[in-house]
Structure formats: structure tokens, C-alpha cells
């Protein structure tokens, strides 16, 4: 049986991926900052697979390494890492963007992903196998108005994904990124700092992706035969053509 560590498992894409992996018999290490949600998930999913939870902030490098080093023996071999934790903070032009928002996006989406990866890659190298899925975004392929620093953070994820592919290939480790377009999760609620009305308008008038759609694709990617590595994948809702064109009410 395989074991997967999923960051950002308390909501959205990460949470749906936990459910989908459980259906496929993949044991789970679920990570996030909200212990109540982690405990609830553990209670539900441990009827099907073994579940361990780790409550830490990916920005806190000491905590990242301490938590991953503390894994019990039965969870210490990690076959799959889903680097999913992340968010946008704000949607402002570069001239008025807030330093706190910029720090949050670069610290979580880029440095947090790197810390978690650094804690796990040595295990995969010694196993001579492993699979890292990096959750990027269409914002990592294109830059859109007011997206500036969020787009920069996701362009960094795209570059890190490619760098991991090059450096880890010699160890038999699979690496790939999935870059979604608009997925209805708590993403916009976080971006707009709890302004749920504004968040809802992002998904008004068209059928957005659901977190289950991305979880289904992640599961497809990790269940390919070992000689198949899906390296890079952009996924849109049908109504979305690129990062700025969404055809509403058609
Ligand atoms: P959600 O807001 O629903 O989920 C974000 C997850 O990240 C939560 O589980 C949250 O857990 C975790 N997280 C956030 N900050 C931290 C932190 N500092 N430390 C640890 N965990 C953290 O959003 P999505 O599911 O949509 O986002 C998941 C990923 O998908 C992100 O990387 C996002 O950029 C990407 N994405 C999303 C798209 C969308 O349209 N929704 C499109 C393209 C990419 P907790 O708060 O408990 O810590
Ligand atoms: C999330 C999708 O278009 O809001 O990464 O940047 S978008």
C-alpha cells in the first residue's frame, strides 16, 4: 500500500484529493494549520485507510522539519507528495499591493513548498522512488492584471517543478505539475480576506472546476504505471479560455 503526504488537506483541492486517494487505498498523511478539520478528516477516512495528521504552518521551517521527522515508522516511507498548500492574498495593482500579502504568497506558495520538499526528498532518494505533484496554476503560465505577485509565486512553482524533474530524475523519482484554472474552493474567500460576496462573484455565471475534478486528475496521474510520468498539465473549466477570458452566461 502506498502512502501520500498532502499539504493543504483541510480544504478545497487538498481535501478532495484526500478522499479520492482513500478510495484508491492510499494511506494518508494530512497536513494543514486547522487541527479541528484535520481531526474530522482523520475520523472519517481512517475507516478506509491509515491516516496520520500533521498540524503545521509551511512558513515555519523548523516546524516543517520537526513534524516530518516525527512521523511514526509506519508513515515514514512517503511514496507521493502533493505540494498543494497555497493561496492568493489580495488582487491589487503592483503599485498598491500590500507587503504582508506579498510576504504571505511568497512564503507559503514558494518557500513553504520548498521546505516540505526538502524534508521529504531525501526519503525518496534513499527509496529510489517517489512521486511529487506540484500544484501550480494558470497563474504560473500567464500573468493577469493585478495578479502580479501571486502569478510570480506560481511561475516559481512552475520553475521549481522543472528543476525538480531535472535533478531528481536520476533517482527514479517522478515529478509533475498540475496547473488549474478557476476552481471553486475557499481560494477566493482567502484572496478577498473573508469578503464572501466578492468571492462568490468570481464563479458566477459559468460552471467552474470543482475540487473533485482536480482530485480526480491527481489520482489519475499517481495511478499511472511507474514508467509513465505526467510532467505538466493545464486544466480549465470549459468556459475558461485563458487566465482572463471566461465566457459567462452562454
Ligand atoms: P483553499 O483555500 O480551499 O485551500 C488551501 C489549503 O492550503 C488549505 O488546506 C490551507 O490549510 C492550506 N494552507 C494555506 N496556507 C497555509 C500555510 N501557511 N501552512 C499550511 N497550510 C496552508 O484553496 P485551493 O484548494 O483552491 O488551493 C489549493 C492549491 O491550488 C493552492 O496552491 C492554490 O494556489 C492552487 N490553485 C487554486 C486554484 C483555484 O481556482 N482554487 C486554481 C489554481 C491553483 P489551513 O488553512 O488549514 O492551513
Ligand atoms: C488560481 C486561479 O486565475 O485565480 O490560481 O489565479 S487564478
From TrEMBL:
Keywords linked to the UniProt accession: Oxidoreductase
Q: Which PROSITE patterns match?
A: ADH_SHORT
Against InterPro entries, the record matches this protein to:
NAD(P)-bd_dom_sf (IPR036291), Sc_DH/Rdtase_CS (IPR020904), SDR_fam (IPR002347)
Per the UniProt record, one Pfam family is: adh_short
UniProt family annotation: Belongs to the short-chain dehydrogenases/reductases (SDR) family.
What protein name is recorded for this chain?
SDR family NAD(P)-dependent oxidoreductase
Amino acid at each position: 500500500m502506498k502512502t501520500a503526504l498532502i499539504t493543504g488537506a483541510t480544504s478545497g483541492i487538498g481535501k478532495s484529493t484526500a478522499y479520492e486517494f482513500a478510495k484508491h487505498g492510499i494511506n494518508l498523511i494530512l497536513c494543514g494549520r486547522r487541527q479541528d478539520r484535520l481531526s474530522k478528516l482523520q475520523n472519517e477516512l481512517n475507516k478506509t485507510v491509515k491516516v496520520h495528521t500533521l498540524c503545521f504552518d509551511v512558513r515555519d521551517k523548523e516546524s516543517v522539519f520537526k513534524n516530518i521527522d516525527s512521523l511514526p515508522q509506519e508513515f515514514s516511507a512517503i511514496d507521493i507528495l502533493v505540494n498543494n498548500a497555497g493561496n492568493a492574498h489580495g488582487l491589487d495593482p503592483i503599485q498598491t499591493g500590500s507587503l504582508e500579502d506579498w510576504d504571505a504568497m511568497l512564503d507559503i506558495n514558494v518557500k513553504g513548498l520548498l521546505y516540505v520538499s526538502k524534508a521529504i526528498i531525501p526519503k525518496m532518494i534513499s527509496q529510489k522512488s517517489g512521486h511529487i505533484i506540484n500544484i501550480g496554476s494558470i497563474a504560473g503560465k500567464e500573468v493577469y492584471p493585478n495578479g502580479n505577485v501571486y502569478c510570480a509565486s506560481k511561475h516559481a512553482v512552475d520553475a521549481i517543478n522543472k528543476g525538480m524533474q531535472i535533478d531528481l530524475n536520476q533517482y527514479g523519482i517522478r515529478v509533475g505539475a498540475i496547473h488549474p484554472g478557476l476552481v471553486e474552493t475557499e481560494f477566493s474567500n482567502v484572496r478577498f480576506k473573508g469578503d464572501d460576496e466578492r468571492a462568490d462573484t468570481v464563479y458566477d455565471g459559468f460552471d467552474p472546476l470543482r475540487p473533485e475534478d482536480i482530485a480526480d486528475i491527481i489520482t489519475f496521474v499517481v495511478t499511472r504505471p511507474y514508467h509513465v510520468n505526467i510532467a505538466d498539465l493545464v486544466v480549465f473549466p470549459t468556459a475558461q479560455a485563458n487566465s482572463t477570458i471566461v465566457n459567462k452566461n452562454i
